[in-house]
Design brief:
The complex is a heterodimer of chains A (about 120) and B (about 110).
Chain A (H helix, E strand, L loop, with lengths): L3 E4 L2 E4 L5 E7 L6 E7 L6 E7 L5 E2 L8 E7 L2 E6 L8 E8 L8 E3 L3 E5 L1
Parallel strand pairs in A: 2-11
Antiparallel strand pairs in A: 1-3, 3-8, 4-5, 4-9, 5-6, 7-8, 9-10, 9-11
Chain B lengths: L8 E5 L4 E6 L7 E8 L6 E6 L4 E2 L4 E4 L5 E6 L8 E9 L10 E6 L1
Parallel strand pairs in B: 1-9
Antiparallel strand pairs in B: 2-7, 3-4, 3-8, 5-6, 6-7, 8-9
Classes of the chains: A mainly beta (about 120), B mainly beta (about 110).
Chain lengths: ~120, ~110
């Protein structure tokens, strides 16, 4: 079945550096992808909608200059956490809707555990 | 998208049916009811969805009340691997998924 691959699964970086997370749809094209963040013991929070060929749409309260999103192709979206700080440590998850069927389901990546030290 | 309400947690004995309720009294006619689950430190996994008819697949059954204000996800024979957070989401076709708090289901031997 359709799969979304996310890389890396785990990353540790120093405070002040930038980290890029990749999200790929493996056997289908995704003109739209979604990025979520999840803190421990909390639900997923939608951060932004990534649109192929146009700017990302950010949810209220999410800093677009800090969380840079680039939807470079129909199968790849990237999230760059710029100038990371310890409070950015979280579980980041991407999702891509499978538009092959009506009432579509969405496929999720396996998530990226970011730790900023 | 419709606001959904779920109990924060439930326990279920292994091998028994797990019935997870969800209230979505403000759901509109175009919104589907989706169920996802998240096992610890993994991305969410799609389970099932429905509009107004009851649905069944290899994972679960979804029972939607006639007025569509509530639904129940049924895992017919729960196993320890079904321990997860289960999310009920009301969503229009193609729209983004917005997650609520979900229900922590603990399957116990």
């Amino acid at each position: 079945g359709a799969v979304v691959s996310q890389h890396p699964s785990r990353v540790i970086c120093k405070s002040g550096t930038s980290v890029k997370i990749e999200c790929r749809s493996l056997d289908f094209q995704a003109t739209t992808m979604f990025w979520y963040r999840q803190f421990p013991k909390q639900s997923l929070m939608l951060m932004a909608t990534s649109n192929e060929g146009s700017k990302a749409t950010y949810e209220q309260g999410v800093e677009k200059d800090k969380f840079l999103i680039n939807h470079a192709s129909l199968t790849l979206s990237t999230l760059t956490v710029t100038s990371a700080h310890p409070e950015d440590s979280s579980f980041y998850i991407c999702s891509a809707p499978n538009l092959r069927g009506f009432g579509t389901e969405a496929f999720f990546g396996q998530g990226t555990r970011l730790t900023v030290v | 998208d419709a606001k959904t309400t779920q109990p924060p947690s439930m326990d279920c004995a292994e091998g028994r049916a797990a019935n997870l309720p969800c209230n979505h009294s403000t759901i509109s006619g175009n919104e589907y009811v989706y169920w996802y689950r998240q096992i610890h430190s993994q991305g969410p996994q799609y389970i099932i969805h429905g509009l107004k008819n009851n649905e069944t697949n290899e994972m679960a059954s979804l029972i939607i009340t006639e007025d569509r204000k509530s639904s129940t996800l049924i895992l017919p024979h729960a196993t320890l691997r079904d321990t997860a957070v289960y999310y009920c989401i009301g969503r229009e076709y193609g729209n983004k998924l917005v997650f609520g708090a979900g229900t922590i289901l603990r399957v116990k031997s």
